[in-house]
Design goal:
The complex is a heterodimer of chains A (111) and B (113). Chain A is built from no helices and 9 strands. Chain A is mostly beta strands and 111 residues long. In chain A, the strands form 2 sheets. In chain A, strands 1-9-8-3-4 form a 5-stranded mixed sheet, with no helix packed on it. A 4-stranded antiparallel sheet of chain A has the order 2-7-6-5, with no helix packed on it. In chain A, a hairpin with a 6-residue loop joins strand 3 and strand 4. Chain B is mainly beta. The chains are: A mainly beta (111), B mainly beta (113). At the A-B interface, strand 3 and strand 4 of A face strand 4, strand 5, strand 9 and strand 10 of B.
Chain lengths: 111, 113
């Protein structure tokens, strides 16, 4: 399974944008890039996913490098509720059963 | 989307005993999974619970230690057998509605003394 690398932790102030990076240099052409987050004392929740093009939804944006070896999750205006561990995960197209979680990035948001 | 409940939400057990964790989904789903999250760690996939057949286990997990049942498309159980303190973890079930998103239950926090 292709591996992802994320910083262990990041900090942000409330109302500011946050850019969470993820490196996946061994990504294959059929791997989708998924982001999940885990709020304290909860199960993970889906944030966004993409293949090649940048993606936007109500929670976040996903910017994917042209060579697909890295991606960035963008929270446009961080809130205190966004404090969580964010996981960048690769999975084969049509095969979300193989969600292999890495160590993730712990995001702290300060008021 | 899917709403997932797990029972019990937490338990404290003695070593050598077994605990069965239940996972209930509010709709029929094809794919159901069990994960373990050890203290301060990320999630590790234990197995895929297959309806009508034996579960598919990931490397490092075996059926004798973590037997799984999947009697229908809305329910599954995971048993942690012959427990030791090293089994103290949060156990989570998840389901996939389509190929792009998994929904996770709230988890069962297990402490083994």
């Amino acid at each position: 399974d292709a591996k992802t690398t994320q910083p262990n932790s990041m900090e942000s102030n409330e109302e500011e944008p946050v850019h969470l990076p993820c490196n996946h240099s061994t990504i294959s052409g059929t791997d989708y890039i998924h982001w999940y987050r885990q709020l304290p004392s909860q199960g993970p929740e889906y944030v966004i996913h993409g293949l090649t093009s940048n993606v936007n939804n109500r929670m976040a944006s996903l910017a994917i490098a042209e060579d697909r070896k890295s991606s960035t999750l963008i929270l446009h205006r961080a809130t205190l509720r966004d404090a969580a561990v964010y996981y960048c995960i690769l999975s084969l197209a049509g095969n979300t059963d193989k969600l292999i979680f890495g160590t993730g990035t712990r995001l702290q948001v300060f008021p | 989307s899917a709403v997932i409940s797990q029972k019990p939400s937490r338990d404290i057990c003695q070593r050598g005993t077994s605990l069965t964790i239940q996972c209930q989904v509010d709709s029929q789903v094809t794919m159901m999974f069990w994960y373990r999250q050890q203290p301060g760690q990320s999630l590790t996939l234990i197995a895929t619970a297959n309806q009508g057949s034996e579960a598919t286990y990931e490397s490092g997990f075996v059926i004798d230690k973590f037997p799984i049942s999947r009697p229908n498309l809305t329910f599954s159980t995971l048993t942690v057998s012959n427990m030791s303190p090293e089994d103290s973890s949060i156990y989570l079930c998840s389901v996939a509605i389509d190929y792009n998103e998994q929904f996770f239950g709230p988890g069962t926090r297990l402490t083994v003394l």
